[in-house]
Write a structure and sequence with these properties.
With 47 residues, the chain is α+β, with helices and mostly antiparallel strands. The chain has one domain. Helices cover 11% and strands 13% of the residues. The protein starts with 8 loop residues before the first strand and ends in a 6-residue tail after the last helix. This is DUF2256 domain-containing protein.
Length: 47
């Protein structure tokens, strides 16, 4: 089991806030760009 302090972290491309790894992202962590569905919906042509 991971401790919260040791989990990988990324910066959201929309809100620029840090977010940490989640179990549901386990298989595709490398492709995760947004911290939430809300940020994903509100993206501008950032890709």
């Amino acid at each position: 089991m991971h401790r919260k302090q040791s989990l990988p972290e990324k910066i959201c491309l929309v809100c620029n806030r840090p977010f940490t790894w989640r179990k549901k992202w386990e298989r595709d962590w490398d492709e995760v760009k947004y911290c939430s569905e809300r940020c994903k919906r509100n993206k501008k042509t950032i890709d």
